[in-house]
């Protein structure tokens, strides 16, 4: 058995000079369980917590951080701007609401959750009189330019994006002044996006992988009639070499590519186990996992949002 080099403190440097811990704790879903889950994660050693306005978990994250007694500057907090607040006049109020609920006066990273605006207003998923999704008219370039102001005034120490296509990111880079510090997107051994990843590296944009376990999340309909990514025989075989699970190997593969990863769980044992996914794979094993790419995306809400 190969030795799994323990690197549980792996960090990557953003283009701002700040460091982001390689393994973060995701807080999507299970809203009522998140305060206890985040508390458990912090106790286990996580120092990177990922949330979003749409998750409804910012208050729970803030409460858990406060209860932990861990100094604020030792925890990297990411949250995201939701689609109903894309209008330039709404962005500052949105970030202020997130700051309030998180109980902090700054964010380590503030992301535009999607490049797709919804109609302005209190409704998170606005509908028209016929029940169809009601999209907004804001241009994501103008939204991002307003986020740049939050970066310059210190409310967000870094800003970035999530779920952008190559074309959308290229347009953003050509139209704005602050290069995104990070891009959070679906990425796992079955959806590797190698060329897009190289584009990010060329422009100094860090990649954070959400859903690093692919279809392990049962919310993804497209992944229900196939085996789970974390049970893939190659991941199991590679993991066994290091005394690790397929899930831990999937995380280590992402880290080997220079990405941060944000697994989620509300189960204490799994929370601790995921943190042990920070270990070094031999290059030959990185290549073995790299051969698993199926270009298979599990999170695609475009149809239900009326985007096509």
Folded structure, characterized:
It is a single chain. With 308 residues, the protein is an alpha/beta fold. The protein has helices spanning 34-44, 58-68, 88-102, 140-152, 166-175, 194-202, 233-242, 246-256, 268-275, 283-290, and strands spanning 11-13, 19-21, 25-26, 48-50, 76-81, 109-112, 159-162, 182-186, 206-210, 260-261. The strands form two sheets. The chain has an eight-stranded parallel sheet. Strands 1-2 form a two-stranded antiparallel ribbon. Helix 1 (34-44) crosses helix 2. The longest helix is centred in the first third of the chain and has 15 residues, at 88-102.
How would you characterize the largest beta sheet? 8 strands, parallel
Strand content: 5-15%
Give the C-alpha Rg.
19 Å
Helix content: 25-40%
Structural class: alpha/beta
The helix count comes to 10
Low-pLDDT segments: 3-7
The side-by-side strand order for the widest beta sheet comes to: 3-4-5-6-7-8-9-10
> Could you tell me how far the N terminus lies from the C terminus, measured between alpha carbons in angstroms?
50 Å
Shape category? globular
The total of beta strands comes to: 10
- Helices and strands, in order, run as EEEHEHEHEHEHEHEHHEHH
Q: pLDDT average, as an integer?
A: 92
């Amino acid at each position: 058995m190969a030795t799994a080099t323990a690197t549980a403190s792996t960090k990557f440097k953003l283009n701002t000079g700040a460091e982001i811990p390689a393994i973060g704790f995701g807080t999507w879903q299970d809203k009522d369980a998140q305060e206890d889950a985040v508390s458990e994660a912090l106790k286990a050693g996580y120092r990177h917590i990922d949330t979003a306005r749409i998750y409804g978990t910012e208050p729970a994250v803030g409460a858990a951080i406060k209860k932990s007694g861990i100094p604020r500057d030792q925890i990297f907090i990411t949250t995201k701007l939701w689609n109903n607040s894309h209008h330039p006049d709404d962005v500052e109020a949105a970030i202020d609401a997130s700051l309030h609920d998180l109980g902090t006066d700054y964010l380590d990273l503030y992301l535009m959750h999607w490049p797709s605006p919804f109609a302005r207003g209190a409704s998170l998923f606005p509908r028209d009189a016929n029940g169809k999704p009601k999209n907004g008219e804001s241009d994501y370039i103008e939204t991002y330019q307003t986020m740049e102001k939050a970066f310059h005034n210190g409310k967000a120490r870094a800003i970035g994006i999530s779920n952008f296509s190559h074309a959308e990111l290229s347009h953003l880079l050509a139209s704005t002044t602050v290069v995104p510090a990070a891009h959070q997107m679906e990425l796992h051994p079955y959806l590797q996006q190698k060329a897009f990843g190289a584009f990010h590296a060329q422009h100094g944009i860090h990649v954070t992988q959400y859903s690093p376990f692919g279809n392990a999340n049962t919310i993804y309909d497209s992944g229900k009639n196939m085996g789970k990514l974390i049970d893939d025989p190659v991941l199991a075989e590679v993991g066994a070499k290091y005394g690790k699970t397929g899930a831990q190997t999937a995380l280590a593969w992402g880290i080997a590519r220079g990405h941060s990863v944000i697994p989620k769980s509300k189960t204490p044992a799994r929370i601790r186990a995921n943190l042990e996914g920070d270990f070094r794979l031999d290059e030959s094993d990185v290549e073995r996992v790299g051969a698993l790419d199926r270009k298979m995306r599990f999170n695609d809400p475009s149809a239900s949002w009326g985007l096509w």
